[in-house]
Amino acid sequence: MLATTTPTTSTKAKDVQVSIVGEDTKILRSRTWDRLKFEVEYSLQKGTTANSYLIEGEKMALLDPPGESFTKNYLKTLQDRIDLERLDYVILGHFNANRGASIKALLEIAPQITFICSNPAALALRESFEGQELKITVVRGEDTLDLGSGHELQFITTPTPRWPDGLMTYDRQTQILFTDKFFGAHLCGNQILDEGWSIYSEDRRFYYDCLHAAQSKQVLSTLDKIAELPAVKFYATGHGPLVRYGMKELTNLYRKWSVEQNTKDLNVALIYASAYGNTATIAGAIAKGLTKSGVGVELINCEVSQSEEVEEAVKKCDGFIIGSPTLGGHAPTQIQTALGVVLKSASKNKLAAVFGSFGWSGEAIDFLETKLKDAGYTFGFEPIRVKFTPTDATLQETKEAAIDYAQTLRKSQKLRTPKAAASGSASDRTAQAMGRVVGSLGVMSVKRGEITGAMLASWISQATFNPPGITVAVAKDRAVESLTHTGDKFVLNILIEGNSLRKHFMKNFAPGQDRFEGLNIAEAQNGCYILKDCLAYLECTVENRMECGDHWLVYAAIDNGAVLNEGLTAVHYRKSGSYY
Fold first, then answer.
1. How many CA atoms lie within 13 A of 341 on its CB side?
2. Mean pLDDT for the chain?
3. Helix and strand element counts for the chain (H, E)
4. Using CA atoms, how far apart are residues 485 and 529, in angstroms rounded to an integer?
């Protein structure tokens, strides 16, 4: 039974929810119902929780203080419950500058604390607090810390390209595994554990796809380490509900998803360095676009990777993408070294691309582009240049560029693979039979915040009478797919046979291009666009999604609709069920 302290007010301001989750163990959930950051993993806009934990044995340890957005509320809540002068340890699952703000405030009250972290975290911590004397204990795999009262903590290092300083903590007394960046989800609510865990499936999958799909090799290594632990009661995550009731299922899914990522037929080496986090954010958007297109990604953080790792990756990949910040008018040394390895090791038939962020200039991006073009590489998208912090629109455009890259890469591979002679095989006959399944043609118009999009859809069906609902199949590599999650709104515009709208939406759009430019449109009640020259429209809310091979089957309830014009419904006839 959880003892919970929650606000009695109905306000949606940031707060801290405190609960007992085990013997001598509390969780402090810093909550925000609003979107916290612009990174892709927050784009479902369901808020998030930054979960911190307090273990009070004979000695006291605090795990994972939250970032700067929560510092004030968090420290007040902590001081209301404990005497911070009695706090012995702060254990860091990872360290970054954002978390450093809370640590700085904590040190002003409790200068006696000792930090427990991995060696990369210790280096970053000392750099961030240069000139200040810190007590730091560096731990490695299998190291332990005895807090007394049976709380013997075991540490598991979990380095990944994104978090090279990753560290998990296992308490043998409570059998709780504190997992930091693994197994979480970005959503906010009152529920602490995952009762009815399947309701979180979509959010947990999205979290994995955004953060871990591009580092699947390291995820598999971490899962192997977890499997060696004694019985684990539940995962105490860094974000979202704790994983107890769905722990076995989610663990198996992480392994399944990671194995799938490691066995893709096409693979891209995504090489980057990031000074202030902006280039890493862009890299995350590129990785999301590639993985949703069915392309495997090997993420390589040049700040922690050796030249041998870069060389191995670029030799076996089908394409590579390099990203860099601009520091003092130049690319950092790590990127220049990685570029030298690429030019020496990567064959010229590998598809290339470059990206980067900058403050006042972008010489590093120009440098990468010039060197690779002079060497004879073909680019999969135009260089992506982002000034300061990327916006939602920038990240959506970046994902679309990555999708185009994946499609170009797939086409180039097909050109290099000899076509098999027509055989009249059973599969050919089956594809012809599948092609006889016809569907009405419509245009899905979507909008979330400042992002709009549209897709010509032919796999549409009425699904329910009460409430009225439809299903639409959306390919994973379509740009609008990321805007069709549960709770998202869209308008289904049903086309008239012979109308030019079909031709308009069949053309290829550049990343970020306005799909509705020059069209006769109106805004629906849900904010999406109605094509006024269509036959009819339906305003829809996504209620559920199901993963089906290379598509997502989206079920949506109908909120509103009307017939706009006379005519016959446009229908899509195909010769083969193997393509649209």
1. 22
2. 93
3. 13, 29
4. 18
Report whether 494 contacts 442 (CB < 8 A).
Answer: yes
Q: CB–CB of 320/283 below 8 Å?
A: no
Q: Which helix (H) or strand (E) holds 489?
A: strand 489-494
Domains and CATH numbers, the chain: 4-260 (3.60.15.10), 264-415 (3.40.50.360), 433-572 (2.30.110.10)
CA distances from 404 to 379, 382, 510 (A): 11, 11, 9
- Provide CB contacts within 8 A for 547, sequence distance 6+: 205, 553
* CB 207 within 8 Å of CB 46: no
Please tell me the pTM assigned to this model. Answer: 0.92
Report CA dihedral (446, 451, 456, 457) to the nearest 10 degrees: -40
Which tens digits make up the pLDDT trace of 463-497?
Answer: 999 999 999 999 999 999 999 999 999 999 999 99
Torsion angle (degrees, nearest 10) of CA 533, 537, 542, 548: -70
Q: What is the DSSP letter of 346?
A: S
| Joined tokens for residue 396 | 């959506």
Cα 492 → chain centroid: 27
Find, among 476, 500, 497, 461, the residue nearest to 406 by Cα. Answer: 476
Q: What tens digit of pLDDT does each residue of 61-73 get?
A: 999 999 999 999 9
pLDDT at residue 412, as a whole number: 87
- Section 419-439 average pLDDT: 75
> 513 — alpha (psi -120 to 50), left (phi > 0) or beta?
beta
Cis peptide before 467 (omega within 30 of 0): yes
Q: Which residue has the tokens 């992506």?
A: 384
Q: Which residues of 541-580 are buried (b: 16+ CB within 10 A; e: fewer)?
A: ebeebeeeeebbbbbbbbbebeebeeeeebebebeeeeee
What is the per-residue pLDDT across 255-278, written as a single tens digit (0 to 9) for each? 999 999 999 999 999 999 998 899
DSSP line for 58-117: SSEEEE----GGGHHHHHHHHHTTS-GGG--EEE-S---HHHHHHHHHHHHH-TT-EEEE
Model pLDDT, residue 455 = 95
Q: What tens digit of pLDDT does each residue of 371-392 get?
A: 999 999 999 999 999 999 999 9
Give yes or no for residue 88 having a pLDDT over 80. Answer: yes
> Is the pLDDT assigned to residue 508 strictly greater than 50?
yes
Helices 97-109 and 71-79: crossing angle in degrees, nearest 10, is 30
Rounded CA-CA distance 374/98 in Å is 39
